[in-house]
Amino acid sequence: MSAPGFHHVETWIFDLDNTLYPASCRLFDQIDVRMGEFISDLFQVDRTEARRIQKDFFYKYGTTLRGLMSEHGIKPDAFLDYVHDIDHSPVPANGPLAANLEALPGRKLVFTNGTVTHATNVMHRIGITHLFDGIFDIVHSDFIPKPERGPYEKFIAEHGVDPGRAAMFEDIARNLAVPHDLGMTTVLVHDAANEDGNKINSMTGDAEGAPHVHHTTSDLAGFLAGIKSN
């Protein structure tokens, strides 16, 4: 069966990190470093051990924070404030992406495992803040990250989304499984520089050939430009 087109879509849902901006700008590297620092200080371990703990939690739970909360009862606010205190200037403005987002019919929403503040800073750098109707973040999801089903259901309810008339864009394929099951059209945004995303995708099989991935692109702006012909 061929992948669905986009003529029916009225709500466009985008992940943030390494999706709306290229992983090659290395913004998330800063967050990665600060997560390691937080864990190193918390558990009084060296940075190598801290990184092992951090990545184990990320791959297992979907976010490092969820692992810290689940296994160690860590309160989220201090962690989120610390890891998102970064320099957002590496994120480049993207005029073509802004123009192609603006041309999409219907609402645009961000659904991120990060925070509203982080998302707002990133979107301001890209030049797309004014094009979005809302941001659903890790606080809105009660600190339960994608790919758990609960956050998607809460997101749909809070924003009145009809999944059958929605499309979701993500850099991690497993985060598209629930949207697919709910009836959304799904798009995997691939970037060779996205080391963590690519590792998770390889751990869970052939991400680009997965039945819950309808479309794949390494050029989000170009892909959106082509949607009008689908």
Architecture overview:
This protein has 230 residues and is of the alpha/beta class. Helices cover 44% and strands 11% of the residues. The protein is globular. The chain starts with 10 loop residues before the first strand and ends with a helix.
Which key phrases capture this entry?
single chain; 10 helices; 44% helix; globular
In which order are the strands of the major sheet placed? 3-2-1-4-5-6
> Total strand count, please?
6
Please tell me the overall pLDDT: 92
Q: Helix coverage percent of residues?
A: 40-55%
What is the H/E string?
EHHHHHEHEHEHEHEH
Offer a quick outline of the entry:
With 230 residues, the protein is α/β, with parallel strands linked by helices.
Show the helix and strand layout:
Layout: E1 11-14, H1 27-43, H2 47-61, H3 64-72, H4 76-83, H5 95-102, E2 107-111, H6 116-126, E3 134-136, H7 149-159, E4 166-170, H8 177-182, E5 185-189, H9 195-203, E6 215-217, H10 220-226
Parallel strand pairs: 1-2, 1-4, 2-3, 4-5, 5-6
Helix pairs in contact: 1-2, 2-3, 5-10
